[in-house]
């Protein structure tokens, strides 16, 4: 069963393995399979579920809401996000303006079938809306009881500091950051993690298995596995491309002895690795089959000895991306249309 951790400087506990439906619900897998995956997560002790209004253009929220019907709401932590374009893509169907936030939270609650979300996250930083406007809107969402806590995703260290400062002035809690983080993608370690520790924010990390690359199923010189993320033309193949280099894939294969020594699969090793970081509250895992959920949960509570953590660093060497500037570099400079 899964362990639980406090989220940021708050009294909220979440499951350190959090179920996410970014690339699956409403797009890659059928609704009955998605529901089976959610029920497998619940059976494994997962209580935290992460989604976003943009996933499958709002369909993922609907699928998650349907899958959670009948569950005791107080026993769940439901997270969603706002920023990216949704709906028909009108001029105000995007960003972190007061208008878009207020309309988006109402839409998300309706689709999720709940009166409130436990965590409402700014999916990216909006360069075209004053941060004061965004934070005031979030404060009002919290005061209206529509969200209990506020978080952000892929914000820089300075943006997190300023967001927390304004949140405190306005009387609500900004407690989480949701960045990409894995053995191969460590760009948060130099700046985002220290800033987060400084202001009482913790990480809920996405893609801890590097979109499946760290499972070891992609072998240099061999055909791509049928039905894998790298063959998905609905967005998966594009997202995984940065890791699909022979030098990366070769190094990943060398991690097998480490996983074997710990009695873990490669995927479990990858999830357990991100949870060794004491600023990480949870690793988000997705699934296209219920059994994947049960397997990923086995990473909860695993302690990787320091010598094996060092071995992982030696094996991966210079294929690891560490540049802290990649957070800002990958952020939208203007609102997407």
Report on the architecture of this protein.
By secondary structure, the chain is of the alpha/beta class. It has a single domain (4-329), classed as TIM Barrel, CATH 3.20.20.100. 37% of the residues lie in helices and 13% in strands. The protein has 13 helices and ten strands. The strands form two sheets. It has an eight-stranded parallel barrel, surrounded by five helices. Strands 1-2 form a two-stranded antiparallel ribbon. The longest helix has 15 residues, at 98-112. The protein is globular and about 50 Å long. The chain starts with a strand and ends in an 8-residue tail after the last helix. 47% of the residues are buried. Keywords: NADP, Oxidoreductase. Belongs to the shaker potassium channel beta subunit family. This is Aldo/keto reductase.
């Amino acid at each position: 069963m899964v362990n639980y951790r406090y989220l940021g400087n708050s009294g909220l506990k979440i499951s350190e393995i959090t179920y996410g439906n970014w690339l699956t619900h409403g797009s890659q897998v059928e609704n009955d399979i998605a529901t089976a995956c959610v029920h497998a997560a619940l059976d494994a002790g997962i209580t935290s579920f992460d989604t976003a209004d943009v996933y499958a253009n709002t369909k993922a929220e609907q699928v998650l809401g349907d899958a959670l019907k009948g569950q005791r709401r107080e026993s769940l932590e439901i997270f969603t996000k706002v920023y990216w374009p949704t709906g028909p893509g009108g001029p105000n169907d995007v960003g972190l303006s007061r208008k878009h936030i207020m309309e988006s939270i109402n839409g998300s609650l309706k689709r999720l079938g709940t009166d409130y979300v436990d965590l409402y996250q700014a999916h990216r930083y909006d360069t075209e809306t004053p941060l004061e406007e965004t934070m005031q809107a979030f404060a009002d969402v919290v005061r209206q009881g529509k969200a209990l806590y506020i978080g952000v995703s892929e914000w820089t260290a300075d943006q997190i500091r300023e967001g927390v400062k304004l949140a405190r002035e306005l009387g609500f809690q900004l407690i989480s950051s949701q960045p990409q983080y894995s053995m191969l993608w460590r760009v948060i370690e130099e700046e985002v993690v220290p800033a987060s520790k400084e202001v009482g924010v913790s990480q809920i990390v996405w893609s801890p298995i590097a979109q499946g690359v760290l499972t070891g199923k992609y072998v240099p010189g061999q055909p791509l596995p049928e039905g894998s993320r790298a063959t998905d033309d609905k967005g998966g193949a594009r997202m995984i491309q940065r890791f699909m280099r022979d030098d990366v894939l070769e190094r990943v294969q060398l991690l097998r002895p480490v996983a074997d020594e710990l009695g873990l699969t490669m995927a479990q090793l990858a999830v357990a690795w991100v949870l060794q970081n004491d600023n990480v509250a949870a690793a988000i895992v997705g699934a296209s089959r219920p059994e994947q959920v049960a397997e990923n949960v086995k990473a909860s509570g695993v302690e990787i000895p320091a010598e094996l953590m060092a071995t992982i660093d030696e094996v991966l060497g210079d294929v690891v991306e560490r540049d802290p500037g990649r957070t800002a570099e990958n952020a939208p400079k203007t609102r997407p249309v």
